[in-house]
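Dear support,

I submitted the protein below through the web form. The confirmation email said the job was done, but the results page showed an empty box. After a refresh the structure appeared. I'm attaching both so you can tell me whether what I see now is the final result or a partial one.
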Amino acid sequence: MQSIFSSTKSLGSQAAFTLSHSRSVVKYSKKTQSRNIAMHVSARTPDVLPAVIIGGGRIGLALQQMGPGTDQMVRRGESIPEDSKGPIFVCTRNDVLEGIVESTPADRREDLVFLQNGVLQPWLESKGLGSNTQALIYFAVAKLGDPPGDGITDLNPEGLTAVTGKWAEALAGRLKAGGLSCKVLEEGPFKVSMFEKLIWISAFMLVGARHPGATVGEVESAHTDEVGQLINELSAGVTAETGVVFEEKLVERLCAYARSVAHFPTAVKEFEWRNGYFYSITTKALEAGKLDPFPIHTSWLKEAGAA
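What the results page shows now:
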């Protein structure tokens, strides 16, 4: 069997939100969180469903620590155990997804759970995996082995991490066993949440690129008007393109999350999966002789040398 991570096809690089929160809007105590994780790891909660975890980085290890102690970790060069059952949590960069799917036994591909950033749906559909479980990860891990901090803000005290699909309950149960929040959503609400996270990372990274060295927190505090203007443009364009309607106070909610990861660095990355989604709509419109639905986005991408 072909081993995991063996594909050489580049699909962009994963830049997970795996950073510690840094402002008071985050409603958790790191000391308390550490105790909670330690308690759950030592107890190895038996009602958490065992899983295969692909990728031993910060997110993969955190998920393993929340598990029952019988998870199977798959690292670079290794294959998915043929006798494995249950969900397969894919905790890797986007650029190795091709190889992961190809090396997964055909009868187990429906069990792949994708935790990557960006718009995955078109690519998943091209692989016959359009109905697979997907998750939006907002919890943060500062460094390998650290306990995760929850993705909770003052405007979303219920938490932001969300999941949909076959293994949604299994992932949510695991996270809750680790003291983290997780919403199980139907396809429609999940799509809205996915676009909100896409707009967040695309807007904050691009505005940050206009101000070299700026952190996410500095974009939120010092360049509020710029990022708000871009968020409004991107959200309006998404609604026009897809029919997705966002709840009120989108700018305020996305800025609240930015404050919770204030020291996160900014850079335009994973273009195909993030800003490239909007730029592809721009290209299609211009080729059809229509107006650019994202003129600010396009202008700033060119300014940053990303398009």
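Response: this is the final, complete result; the empty box was a page-load delay. Confidence is low (pLDDT under 50) at residues 7-43.
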